Amino acid sequence: MKTALRQATINSALTASALVLATLSNVAVADPVTQWGYSTNSTFSNPTWDGPAGIGGQQTATQYELSWGYSAGNFQTDTGNANTNRSALTIGNAVTGTTTGGGPATGTVNTTIGGTPNPLLGQIGTGISITHWNNPISSSYGTLTGARITDTLTLNPLLPSYYTTSVSAPTLQFNFLFQETANAGAYGAGGFGNAGSGYCADGSIGGNCADLFGFSNTLTLNNAFSYIDSGADGILGNADDFNRTYYASVFVLDESNQAFPLSQLTSKECQALGLGTSCYGFRTAEAAHTTAKFAFAITTEPFSVPEPGSLALLGTALLGLGSLRRRKS
């Protein structure tokens, strides 16, 4: 009797162990989505201005364009005259190469198995672009001081082919600040004080002050979302299905598809932007346009964030975006 009971106990334990191992095995072999079709778009909203448009001026605010300056001007052309110029921020489509008119941008992207995407393996998807059309503007025109950018991403699983349900990745939304200063430099030596004494915010001599975009606080990636993967049988709805967490991370690239030159700005530049004494950002040239292209990756593990100077990153925890550019006084 004792022997039979002992054998029954052993058999029960073995059965339980087998069930546990089977469950773990099913989880381990659940097939992730390896390729996605995507549609991504960004829009402007809630713009603010430092005053009225001004005599002969016009302020335009649409979902894909924020522009100001001379009403008959063209922000894509610098006339050489601050009274007849316009400046703008525009949203374009980095997939088609347009810098105005917005999205959506569409394409395919391969899933990164792990946390380090490889562009050579099709693991970086291209999205929209934002262009700063930086022309000298007369101080008689009211200029942009801030707005909001909202970025959406819809994913449609392509491989394996038995996945059919689309999913929306977390929406990215952040506010930005914008400020124009005198082209000749409105700061004192070393960037101290807004006294109009001919120095730029970084302390350099005025006349060629850098235009600045700045970000405050830690930039976060790894925006998590879930998708039910099938098990080894390739059939959704069976017991071996697995609710997998994926991570969407957004990058900023330049027009050559290299990491955008994001770096730590000086404390005075950050203060000029209204972002405290520590921030990351980049500088743009006067009488030129600068385009930043949004790109993204889908990973199965959290992405490890390197120094912003080596890889430009943008995420949902952006608390402030500032832009400082010159105005002709």
Mind explaining what this structure looks like?
It is a single chain. The chain is mostly beta strands and 329 residues long. The chain has one domain (31-327). The chain is 10% helix and 39% strand. It has 2 helices and 17 strands. The strands form 2 sheets. Strands 1, 5, 7, 8, 9, 10, 13, 14 and 17 form a 9-stranded mixed sheet that branches. Strands 2, 3, 4, 6, 11, 12, 15 and 16 form an 8-stranded antiparallel sheet that branches. It is elongated and about 70 Å long. The model is unreliable at 1-28 and 309-329 (pLDDT under 50).
Give the total of domains: 1
Beginning-to-end CA distance, first to last residue: 102 Å
Q: Globular, elongated, flat, extended or rod-shaped: what is the shape?
A: elongated
* Strand residue percentage: 35-45%
Mean of residue pLDDT values: 79
Low-confidence stretches: 1-28, 309-329
The residue fraction in helices comes out at 10-25%
Helix/strand structural class? mainly beta
Largest beta-sheet characterization: 9 strands, mixed
Radius of gyration: 26 Å
Number of strands: 17
Order of helices and strands: HEEEEEEEEEEEEEHEEEE
* Tally of helical runs: 2
Pfam families: PEP-CTERM
Organism: Dechloromonas agitata
Signal peptide: 1-30
Domain Ice-binding protein C-terminal: 304-327
